[in-house]
Amino acid sequence: MKEKIDRLLNEINSFEIASAEQLEDFRLKYLSKKGAVSNLFTDFKTVAPEQKKEFGQLINRVKQAAQGKYNTVKESIAISSLSFNDAEDYTKTSEPLNTGSRHPISTVRQEIVDIFSRLGFTVAEGPEIEDDWHVFSGLNFPEEHPARDMQDTFFIEKDPDVLLRTHTSSVQVRVMENNQPPIRQIFPGRVFRNEAISARSHCIFHQIEGLYIDTEVSFADLKQTLLLFAKEFFGSDTKIRLRPSFFPFTEPSAEMDVSCSICGGKGCAVCKYTGFLEILGCGMVDPNVLEASQINSEKYTGFAFGMGIERIAMLKYQIKDIRYFFENDIRFLKQFSTF
Ligand code: PHE
Fold first, then answer.
1. Would residue 279 count as lying in a domain?
2. Kind of pairing between the strands at 122-123 and 183-192
């Protein structure tokens, strides 16, 4: 009997169970009513009374071994049979999550700011609702001068001294009246003009203004700064062209063109077959403007430039209509998603 029990114990311990079927075989063979363990209890009835205690313990050990093995294996099979479908992503949210993305104007604005930051320009901002002094008079626009008509102004209420800024040059004045040179800053922001809305112009748009004032700042510095910007933004092969122009607050003044990055300057529909695209206005800060903000024009000189962010973004992304930027059509905006 003892031998039989030992054999059975060995058998139970070495029985290989690798599947649910084998587990069932094991159960039938050892743990069912007609199984080996049950048989041991039948045999037990014939054991001599003085040996009952010893055999009872042995038989119980066999039963526990069989039952223990059965329970453990059953549990592990249950866990591993929880089938995971590889095609399903269980980390997915139940609702689709639409991630937002930067507006193309913000992206371009940031790129421009980054380039000038590398040249040592810091960012400053000013108010969108302005007064006449900061938008016009402080920038050398004479009273009643037709130059004021260059920019159709939105006035607030009936007070001609409260208006929406028509250009970010107003921030120049605010910076100059509160700081002495050296000044090396850029001013990004929204501007407003009472213009008919069309594919090329809007009543709200964005500009970035640059101002550099120090001793001995020359037109060559302006040219070099803008050339570097153009190469960084539009590509290293980009050429620039400065054409004489007029602004009341700069003298001399110029408009800058960059070689068309679409055709490489050969001429195409985008550059109207000229090979160049106009991107900004610039010039040397007029001494009158410096003096109006209590900066000594005998000691200091400076340059300023201003560009429209929409215009630059339209060139960069080949966008034909400025109105797309303000419609917030998700199909348009999605194209600029960086995710
Ligand atoms: N303020 C001018 C405009 O809005 C641009 C400009 C800025 C020109 C600075 C010269 C110097 O058109």
1. yes
2. parallel
Measured in Å, residue 70 CA sits from the centre of ligand 1 at 86
- Answer yes or no: is the C-beta of 283 below 6 A from any ligand 1 atom: yes
Query: Going by CA atoms, what residue is nearest to atom 6 of ligand 1?
Result: 306
Higher-confidence residue: 130 or 82?
130
Same domain, 72 and 158: no
Greater pLDDT, 5 or 213: 213
Q: How many domains does the chain have?
A: 2
Peptide bond connecting 252 to the previous residue in cis, omega within 30 degrees of 0: yes
Is the shortest distance between the CB of 282 and ligand 1 below 6 Å? yes
Atom of ligand 1 nearest to the CA of 306: 7
> Residue with the nearest Cα to atom 9 of ligand 1?
305
CB atoms within 10 A of CB 334: 11
Q: Residue 191: CB within 6 Å of ligand 1?
A: no
Q: Is the CB of 222 under 6 A from ligand 1?
A: no
CATH of the domain at 210: 3.30.930.10
Query: Which range is least confidently modeled, 68-72, 81-85, 326-330?
Result: 81-85
The confidence score (pLDDT) of residue 114 equals 98
The helix (H) or strand (E) run that includes residue 223 is helix 219-234
221 in the same domain as 326: yes
Task: Output DSSP code: residue 45.
Answer: T
Mutate to test the pocket of ligand 1, among 209, 212, 229 (most ligand atoms within 8 A of CB): 209
User: Are both 255 and 321 inside the same structural domain?
Assistant: yes
Q: Is residue 184 part of a domain?
A: yes
DSSP string, 198-262: -SS--SEEEEEEEEEEETT--HHHHHHHHHHHHHHHH-TT--EEEEEEEETTEEEEEEEEEE-TT
| pLDDT for the residue numbered 308 | 95
- Among 114-123, 129-138, 269-278, 323-332, the least confident range: 269-278
- Nearest-CA residue for ligand 1 atom 10 is 282
For residue 263, being part of any structural domain is answered with: yes
Question: Counting atoms of ligand 1 from 1, which one is nearest the CA of 303?
Answer: 11
Are residues 233 and 142 located together in one domain of the fold? Answer: yes
Q: Which two tokens stand for residue 111?
A: 């790129």
Decide: 305 in ligand 1 pocket, CB within 6 A. yes
Task: Note whether residue 91 is domain-resident.
Answer: no
Write down the pTM of the prediction. Answer: 0.72
Q: Do 33 and 135 lie in a common domain?
A: no
Range of the domain at 27: 2-80
Out of 16, 48, 80, a domain closes at 80
